[in-house]
Structures are given as structure tokens and as C-alpha cells.
Amino acid sequence: MNWAFVAICMVVIAVLAWRIAVRVRLLNQRIEEVRDEMERNPLDPFSAWMELWRLIDRR
């Protein structure tokens, strides 16, 4: 078995895992921000529909 290949694969896996962890942390921060915003300014049903349509139109 080529140990250099194994070491490179381990480094690649570690980098990918680190990037995933960073993305998950950023996503969790964004979810927390949205929850805080929803607590401060709860949406009425009409605003909720408008927000949903705005998010759909972004695609």
C-alpha cells in the first residue's frame, strides 16, 4: 500500500470535513438570526405569503 496516497486521501477528507463543519456553523448562525428576527417581528399571514413568494422568485 502506498502510504503517501493514504496520507493525501486523509488530508483531503480532513479538509472536506472542516469545510462542511464551517458551512454547518454558518448555517446555524443564519438560522439563529432568522429566529431572532421572527421573535422581534412575527409575520402576519399575508406577510408570510409574500415572503414565501419572494423566496420562490429568487430561484
Percent range for β-strand residues: under 5%
In percent, how helical is the residue content?
Answer: over 70%
Q: First CA to last CA: what distance?
A: 47 Å
Radius of gyration of CA atoms, rounded to a whole number: 20 Å
Roughly what is the average pLDDT, rounded to an integer? 88
In the predicted model, the low-confidence regions spanning at least 5 consecutive residues are none
Structural class: mainly alpha
> Number of helical segments?
2
DSSP E strands, number: 0
Sheet with the most strands?
none
H/E order of the elements?
Answer: HH
Number of domains: 1
Approximate shape: elongated
What does this protein structure show overall?
- This protein has helices at 3-40, 45-58.
- With 59 residues, the protein is mainly alpha-helical.
- It has one domain (3-58).
A few lines on this structure:
With 59 residues, the chain is mainly α. It is built from 2 helices and no strands.
Topology readout:
Layout: H1 3-40, H2 45-58
What descriptive keywords fit this protein?
59 residues; mainly alpha; elongated
